[in-house]
Amino acid sequence: MSEMEKLKPGRIVRAFDWIYPTLAFVAVIALWQLIVKLTGIHAFVLPAPTAVISRMQDATLLLAHNTPPTVIAILSGFLAAIAVGVPLAVLIVAFPKFDKSFYPLLLGSQGVPKVALAPILIVWFGFGFVPTFLIAMLIAFFPIVIDTVAGLRSIDPGYLLLARSMGASRLKIYWRLLLPNALPHMFAGFKVAMALAIVGAIVGEMVGSNDGLGYILVVANGNLDMPLVFAILVWLVAVSLILTGLIELLERVAVPWSRKSRNEVMARGSA
Amino acid sequence: MARQGHRHRSLAMIEIRQVQKTFRAKDGAVVALNDVNLDIGIGEFVSVVGPSGCGKSTLMMCVAGLAQPSRGAVAIDGRIVSEPFTNVGVVFQDALLLDWRNVIDNVLFQIEMRGLPKAEYRDRAMSLLERVGLGGFERKYPWELSGGMRQRVALCRALVHNPPLLLMDEPFGALDTLTRDQMNIDLLRLCEGGGKTVLFITHSISEAIFLSNRVVVMSQRPGRIVEDMTISFDQDRTLDIRSTAQFVEYEKRVYDVFRQLGVLSDKRSSV
CA A232: distance to chain centroid? Predict the structure, then answer.
């Protein structure tokens, strides 16, 4: 941004914005610690934050060992959902008959709780990576299709008239016009999809895997090792923050023109 | 490309014959254009003025082949227009720039969509931008430009492939008066000596007279042509020309037509 913008008071306020959530976070943790200490709740009901942190330090190796399978399941499920969801969305928008035939089916299929499919998938594919990956993909797939369809249809009809006056082929219109135009919508879908893929992978590991964070969560729970359960949860929060942050970052690089970022510029200007 | 129709010898580039356009609406058919006949010669700059909703944009869409007349036909270079006519540059009221492309790539969008070699047109694109005062802005993005600058980019995009025909649908309608005046001058400069045929739709009478060799006046809906004036001035077209007796006389003639049609009335209408 320009030099003028740097001088605006809005920027200074924004620079210290992180203070508020940080203070709130610290306050919540302190309150938690205080309640546990004052009430003397047993650690296998609610462990104190200090207990969780020290358990986390003990379990570093366990966490480190079980993180890659989970992250791989999340990312592969997420990417597969994009690989299937985006082309499907293009087909829905490009071919009205396909849309009429399959879109209702797609919407209806959302009534099926994906988590409930886990036992079936285990019967079909056995324990391990495959059912976990499939649950992550199935659950992440829907928002990608919906948002990509919405994005492709969000084009101002004027652009289509313009493209037709240029004698552009259908393929070019999709590739150079509709898809780039859909990207802001698509990224909104990707963010939701990533959050859901995390849920899907964890659930998949809880029911059908021999490793991964979801698996050790079930084991720790079975052992009534509540500090470890909480340690795994805290670690999972960190992992999902990183993964969703990755999408945000990618969005900023790939879609600098998105309405959101433009609105931010405006908000900063008026602050 | 336009389908081969029967050719007949004529100096006219565009022949509009008994064109009628009817739209289906909730309460029956709406006749937008009624028996429109118009010839536009090679190199002519023809403006169509008329009250809003008179079908002048529809007329341009029919010429561009982006809409088909319900009755009658449009021919360009002796060929009936039955699909989008592509040997043309089109400018709409909205600049319709692509947010993900910078200025130069927006201009070259025309070249890409046509499958022409981009490298060969880059210099021409740059010099066009230079001529409309956008030199040095090639790397800017649409959201960093003012409305007038965006429309200038759209104008360069319409001209970059050097089309013989320019179709403009209220291109400066959304701009403020000063920007509009400058755009009018820029457009005249760009078209000077280029031998381009221009069909220019506007609701501004003075803009039409300032720019054109011919001003065609349309009635309110159902639109038909009620006046066809040849415009010529004894002096060069500069902004000062608008206060000359000749210019004022042309304006008066158009206003008189609108008065006869009942579009304008000196008496206050009883609401």
Answer: 18
Q: Estimate the crossing angle of helix B177-191 against helix B118-131, to 10 degrees.
A: 130
Which has the closest alpha carbon to B81: B170, B17, B166, B155? B17
Q: Taking Cα atoms as reference points, which of B214, B108, B212, B213 lies closest to residue B158?
A: B108
For residue A219, the domain's CATH number is: 1.10.3720.10
Could you tell me if residue A18 is inside a domain?
no
Contact call for B92 and A257, based on CB within 8 A:
no
The first and second tokens of residue B2, run together, are: 């336009």
Using CA atoms, how far apart are residues B32 and B22, in angstroms rounded to an integer? 6
- The boundaries of the domain holding residue A125 are 47-259
Listed in sequence order, the residues at least 6 apart from A165 whose beta carbon sits closer than 8 Å to its beta carbon are B64, B66, B84, B85, B86, B88, B90, B167
Write the pLDDT tens digit of every residue in B41-100. Answer: 999 999 999 988 888 899 999 999 999 999 999 999 989 999 999 999 999 999 999 999
Which residues of chain B carry a pLDDT beneath 50? 1-10
Q: Quick check: A162 contacting B, CB < 8 Å?
A: yes
Describe the crossing of helices A226-254 and A179-208 by its angle, rounded to 10 degrees: 170
Q: What is the pTM of this model?
A: 0.84
The total number of residues shown for chain B amounts to 271
Helix axes A19-39, A49-58, angle to 10 degrees: 100
Dist. CA A200–CA A115, nearest whole Å? 7
Instruction: State residue B55's pLDDT score.
Output: 87
Q: Minimal CA–CA distance to A261: which of B143, B253, B66? A: B143
What's the ipTM?
Answer: 0.89
- Comparing CA positions, the residue from B162, B15, B155 lying closest to residue B88 is B162
For residue B96, give the nearest of A159, A168, A172 by CB distance: A159
Residue type at B225? Answer: I
Instruction: Let me know if residue A129 belongs to a domain.
Output: yes
Report the DSSP pairing between strands B12-25 and B165-169.
unpaired
State whether residue B85 is helix, strand or coil: coil
Percent of chain A with pLDDT over 70: 89
* pLDDT single digits (tens) A128-186: 899 999 999 999 999 999 999 999 999 999 999 999 999 999 999 999 999 999 999 99
Per the structure, the count of domains in chain A is 1
Q: Answer whether B106's CB lies under 8 Å from B138's CB.
A: no
Residues of A in contact with B84 (CB under 8 A): 164-165, 167
Chain B residue closest in CA terms to A263: B143
- Let me know: does B163 contact B169? Beta carbons within 8 Å: no
- What percentage of residues in chain A have a pLDDT greater than 90? 73
**Interchain CB contact of A26 with B (< 8 Å):** no
